[in-house]
Give the backbone structure.
Amino acid sequence: MNDSYNLESEKELYIKQLEDELFRVKNSNKSLRDNNKSLLIGLNKVRRQVLRFKKEYKNMKLERDFKKYPDSVYTFFVLDFDGTYNNEIPDSYGVEPVVYLIPLNRQIEVEQIAREASNEFNMTDCCECIENLFEERLRKNGIRFQYIGIILLTFEERMTDYLADYIPKQVV
């Protein structure tokens, strides 16, 4: 009887120890999951900051590179309206993109002005077209430009990368 009692007692003790260990493992597992969530949130914050810093550095580098050019060096700039005027007829021309000649050292500023003109057009009940708002802002900011013309491609032809990468384009 004594052997039987000890065996039962040891069995109960062993089961109790296993249950306690299982409880500790479950708590440890929960803590690890919570810790991993916190680490992932922190990692995502750091990743966003790194991407923002990379973008800011790229823009600073571009601005620095552009500033080395005098106002007498120009580039073409395309203002593409396909983001605003959504034409579904593939073989129509819709609102054709407009080409300008702009100073290379003011390219980033011109791209920003194009976005601002688009935002003003979309956010207000103004009667002006984006092109006029854009040109008005260029003049206000003292940016010399020349209107070159339009790009006569159908809407379907413009749905691909129709310009070389080195030609600046802003879709508004």
